Amino acid sequence: MALKDLLIICGGEFLIINWIEGLDRCFAGLQKSLTSIRSLKGDRKYYEYRRTALPYIVWITENLKYGDLSSLSLDYESYILECSAGSRPESDFARLRQSLFNQPVTTILAADLETQLQASQTIQSHPNMKDVGSPHYVKKASYYHHYAGLPRPSQLSTMDPSNKKLYGDALRAHTLLTRKLGSVGLLYLLFKDYYGFTGVKQLWKSLPFATRFLTKMKVNRLFGEVFVKKYHGRYGTNKIIDRLLEESGWYVTEDVDFRTGAVRKILLDYYSGLWKYHNAVKTALEEYDKSRKIYETLTPERITYLRTGLEQLRDAYRVLSIVGRLNPATDFRSGNRLGKIPTDLDYNNFEQTMKKLGFEPELPTFEIEHCDKCSGKGGSSNRVCNTCQGWGVTGLPSSVKRLIPKMMYSSQDVSSYKKQDALERGYNYIYGRLNFGRTEQTDYQIESIDQMLTALDLLEKGIKPKV
Ligand SMILES: [Zn+2]
Fold first, then answer.
1. Co-location of 14 and 114 in the same domain
2. 461 Cβ partners below 8 Å, 6+ apart?
3. Where does a domain end: 293, 313, 334?
4. Which of 142, 170, 173, 311 is the most exposed place for a label (fewest CB within 10 A)?
């Protein structure tokens, strides 16, 4: 390995493999023989060019694999993203930190409904809470038959009559049933045969064992008093609810729709919202605190270090993008086994770019010859060349053959989808996607490095240098 690997550990968990002076050492200039290619014409120019470039290609496929580079990119990206997230001011999270939903589940459930709904309304507009289902009624115009959480009494007046009746019943049921069973008791009653509802199970499970145990005893005793048989499913639960409401002075008619589930679903949605809000607030704060710690490891010196590393990584992608384009790309699925040769290569540009990147690695040495039998094409449109077996050159060591795409593949080479796929994936790991001379993958990586550098600039502005 020509690159000098260095390790940095950031924020305890992040491992970044960087090279600082590695590329300087490996890159430095290009063989003069490339210059002579300029005078050649047509196809010959490409083949001679490829032959000359082969040692470079081999070196790069062994040392700058796309797969390795992209995993390095991901390490940089996660670190920079963590730093960006951690650079947000504490005040952005004050509303969440002070919220009832940052308390243990027992405390949240023990609060009265008005306090819970007020607390969720307070944080509803926070960016971290926007897509989280609230325990508080939020009108969802686009969802037919989608129930929302419980409304505050003031919201009832603006609802259309059918919703007003439904949500009014749900509110009243909540008041009467929690008076009888407590909030945890009602949760258990609703949950015991309806545990598929997202979040309700987690809410129940995050209560202390003793609370759950005593609640179960209390609620199940009710069932024992009413029913002789042990299990009645939802029917049994509805009967208990009816009885509890009747005892509270609300004589249940078919209007209170526990049987078809509407009121029950509103209540379940409210409980599920309590969990989702608690979970979202806790997660947001934990993530922020974690990012904050990582952000604190970002010193001006480290920014410089990261920037240099990213710029070198970008250079490496550029080199890879160039050699990727030098290789004959073959669309196996189209049935054509002959590699498509890129025609838009700018040789002068290649030489200049390599020089600029300081490309001077210790190249592998081997004698290869341009195959005159097939004019370097690897074969005709249906026969692979006997002399070079499709490589377009002779004398390639076998270790090199697996790194470089052939000019033409035999029908044996690509006889199954599995073989085609293995070939494609092998080359993609080395070059990024080899796609008819186009280089979307490396282009994308270069673009994302530019974005990371911009993010670093922004972070740098926020950090005061140490005096
Ligand atoms: Zn040949």
1. no
2. none
3. 293
4. 142
